[in-house]
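Quick one:
INPUT:
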C-alpha cells in the first residue's frame, strides 16, 4: 500500500454489514451554552437530517465547535434540548449517545499500534476477541492501512494518522460521526484527496456526518447541508449552491465567497417575472438594482454581486454598448492584478464613492485582454445576478 501523500486510498466499494449502523438525525431546539456571563452559543434551533453530510461553517470563535461538543456530550448545555433521532439526550453521558468524534489532533495513543488504536473502542464496549478481530481487520482494509497495522502513530504520515483516527471512530458503528477540523493539518493536495475519501466513506456507510470547518471549499465540496454560524448564532442554513449563490446576509456574503457588497437604502421594490427587483440607493455611488424576495422601502440594506459574474469593458467598448434597464454599470480603476493559477483576481476602486471591488476572470481569458493596472474600465452586471441582503 502506497503512502496517502503520493496516491489516494482505494476505498472498498461495499461496507461489511457488521460495520454498518442505522443513521440518525440530530435536532437542536433553542440550545444555549454559557460560560459564566459569556454566551458562546445562543438559542440555536437546527435540524441535521439522518444520513446527511452537514458542515458547521464559520470563523474562529463563532460557536461551531462548542455546538458539536454539546451534541457529542463533551459540553453540557445551559438551556434547550438536543435529540438524536427521537431520543432526547440532555444530560446523557457521551458514552451512551452512540456517537463518535474525530478530533482535530487525532488523539491517537502514541504507545499503541494502529491495530490497538482502532481496537480500543471495541474493547471498552466489551466485544469478544473474535468480533473485534473481524471488525478491526475489515476497517483497516477499508481505509487502506492493513499493511501498517503493527506500526505506531509516530511511524506514520499525517494522512495515515488521520485515517487511523477515522477508522477508530467508524469501527464502533456510531449513528452520528463528528469531525472537528479534520483536514486542517494536511497540505493542500492531500487535503483535496482526503476530503474526497471522506465523502465517499460517508455515502457508503450511509452515516450522519457532522463536520466543523472554517474552510469554504471544504464545506462546498463535502456538504449536503451547510450551517453558517456567526457570534454563537446560526446565520443561514442551505445547500452549498444556495449558500454560494444566494447569501441572506452581509456576513454570509463576505465569509463564503468573493462577493462585492454595496450598502444603502431601499427606494423601491417592483415585482417582475424574474422576481422582485429592488432599487437600492448607495451613498456617493447612485442607484443599483438587485433581486430579492422582500424589501421594505426606506429600510437600510445591502446587495452583493459575485466577482466572477461581472463583465469588464474598456471605456470605448462600454460607450458602444447600451446598458439595459436591468443592468448595473459602474466605472472603476484597476489597482492590482493577482495571478493565482487558473483564476486571476483584479482589484479595482470605483471612480464614484471610492469603494473597493474585486473582479475575477479565468486566467486564459484575462491574459488575452488589453487591461493593465491603472487603467479606467467599466464593470457591468445583471440585476438578476445581484442578490439583495436584508441584514
Amino acid at each position: 500500500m502506497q503512502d496517502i501523500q503520493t496516491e489516494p486510498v482505494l476505498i472498498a466499494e461495499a461496507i461489511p454489514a457488521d460495520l454498518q449502523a442505522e443513521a440518525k438525525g440530530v435536532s437542536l431546539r433553542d440550545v444555549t451554552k454559557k460560560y459564566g456571563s459569556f454566551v458562546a452559543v445562543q438559542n440555536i434551533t437546527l435540524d441535521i437530517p439522518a444520513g446527511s453530510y452537514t458542515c458547521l461553517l464559520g470563523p474562529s470563535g463563532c460557536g461551531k465547535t462548542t455546538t458539536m461538543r454539546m451534541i457529542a456530550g463533551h459540553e453540557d448545555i445551559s438551556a434547550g434540548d438536543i435529540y438524536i433521532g427521537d431520543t432526547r439526550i440532555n444530560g446523557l453521558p457521551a458514552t451512551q449517545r452512540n456517537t463518535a468524534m474525530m478530533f482535530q489532533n487525532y488523539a491517537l495513543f502514541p504507545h499503541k499500534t494502529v491495530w490497538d488504536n482502532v481496537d480500543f473502542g471495541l474493547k471498552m464496549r466489551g466485544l469478544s476477541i473474535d468480533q473485534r478481530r473481524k471488525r478491526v481487520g475489515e476497517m483497516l482494509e477499508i481505509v487502506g492501512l492493513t499493511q501498517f497495522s503493527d506500526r505506531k502513530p509516530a511511524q506514520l504520515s499525517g494522512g495515515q494518522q488521520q485515517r487511523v483516527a477515522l477508522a477508530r471512530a467508524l469501527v464502533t458503528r456510531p449513528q452520528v460521526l463528528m469531525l472537528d477540523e479534520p483536514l486542517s493539518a494536511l497540505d493542500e493536495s492531500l487535503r483535496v484527496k482526503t476530503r474526497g475519501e471522506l465523502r465517499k466513506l460517508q455515502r457508503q456507510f450511509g452515516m450522519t456526518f457532522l463536520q466543523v470547518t472554517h474552510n469554504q471549499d471544504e464545506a462546498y465540496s463535502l456538504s449536503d447541508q451547510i450551517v453558517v454560524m456567526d457570534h454563537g448564532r446560526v446565520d443561514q442554513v442551505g445547500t452549498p449552491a444556495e449558500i454560494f449563490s444566494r447569501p441572506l446576509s452581509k456576513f454570509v456574503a463576505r465569509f463564503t465567497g468573493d462577493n462585492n457588497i454595496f450598502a444603502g437604502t431601499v427606494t423601491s421594490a417592483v415585482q417582475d417575472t424574474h422576481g422582485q427587483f429592488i432599487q437600492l440607493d448607495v451613498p456617493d455611488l447612485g442607484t443599483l438594482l438587485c433581486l430579492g424576495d422582500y424589501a421594505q422601502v426606506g429600510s437600510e440594506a445591502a446587495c452583493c454581486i459575485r466577482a466572477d459574474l461581472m463583465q469588464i469593458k474598456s471605456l470605448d467598448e462600454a460607450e458602444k454598448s447600451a446598458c439595459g434597464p436591468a443592468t448595473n454599470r459602474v466605472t472603476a480603476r484597476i489597482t492590482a492584478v493577482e495571478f493565482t493559477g487558473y483564476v486571476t483576481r483584479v482589484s479595482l476602486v470605483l471612480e464614484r464613492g471610492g469603494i473597493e471591488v474585486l473582479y475575477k476572470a479565468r486566467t486564459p481569458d484575462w491574459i488575452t485582454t488589453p487591461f493593465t493596472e491603472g487603467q479606467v474600465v467599466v464593470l457591468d452586471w445583471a440585476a438578476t445576478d445581484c442578490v439583495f441582503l436584508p441584514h
